[in-house]
Amino acid sequence: MSSKEPDDCGFNAALQAIGGKWKPSLLWALHLRPHRFAELRRLLPGISEKVLAQQLRRMEADGLVNRHDYGEVPPRVEYSITPLGLSLNDAVTAMSKWGKQHESWKARQGAPV
Amino acid sequence: MSSKEPDDCGFNAALQAIGGKWKPSLLWALHLRPHRFAELRRLLPGISEKVLAQQLRRMEADGLVNRHDYGEVPPRVEYSITPLGLSLNDAVTAMSKWGKQHESWKARQGAPV
Question: Looking at residue B3, what is its pLDDT?
Fold first, then answer.
């Protein structure tokens, strides 16, 4: 594997972009259709306004999400997924599918993990 | 998203199985071909014997890796990837590809993140 480990590197970069409690769910919601801030908040019971705003800003900085301000009064702001976000959502979905499959496997083993 | 978030759940289960510094590289090496303990250690400079043994035991308990003891003297023990491990490696590879793509994207943005 020489000086550069082939798969760790990019894997950790991806984890950094999607890590944490809320980002996978936000990305999932936005891959279905664009959402307004208040809609996203309703989808994630327990998230505070501050944390949701922070997560969305990070995802915007990482190129996963577009923020569109319609410049209307009262304000109308919509979040949508970018092509980069969509490709991450695909990869995350593959991981999630595996995780669900693995949970069934562990249940079959009777492992209390 | 009701009480159960659709994609977080399985995603975290997958992360638990593959998380940490070494497991993605171990899985990658074993998806290429079976390896003996000493070979794996050489592939991962910096890993201690104790940590490597621990990681392999966990991956075995998670159904990712098979340990085959040939019962020879001197001992010959080989580790190979299971079908479950192979499917996780595919998902991890998709994430890693995305991570590499994202690093290029960030470089193009000139973001010092």
Answer: 39
